[in-house]
């Protein structure tokens, strides 16, 4: 696998204007190309595309992880701890309701990580995390 590879993720939203405010203004993702039915965002160097598809937006299934109900369909980014803390503070100041409040998961274990889950305005679940040791992202 090429460590310089980028990912592309397309996902449904119920309103393009709401997506622009949430991903562009709140999360700070610069906007790229767009049309009336979709908009590209630079999501931490990756291509994220919000497609107008209100009937498909949201999530409904979760799994138990570390005593929390984690949405089984979610996406996000792995940030440095400083970036993660800054984002958590920005989200709290904006009044975002968390599915899982910011906390440290697997404390003291190889996969120790800061994590938080929240929904975008279309009900899509996002997780942002930061590892205590980035070398342990894929450790078993």
TrEMBL record:
<dbReference type="InterPro" id="IPR004360">
    <property type="entry name" value="Glyas_Fos-R_dOase_dom"/>
</dbReference>
<protein>
    <submittedName>
        <fullName>VOC family protein</fullName>
    </submittedName>
</protein>
<dbReference type="InterPro" id="IPR037523">
    <property type="entry name" value="VOC_core"/>
</dbReference>
<dbReference type="InterPro" id="IPR029068">
    <property type="entry name" value="Glyas_Bleomycin-R_OHBP_Dase"/>
</dbReference>
<feature type="domain" description="VOC">
    <location>
        <begin position="5"/>
        <end position="131"/>
    </location>
</feature>
<dbReference type="Pfam" id="PF00903">
    <property type="entry name" value="Glyoxalase"/>
</dbReference>
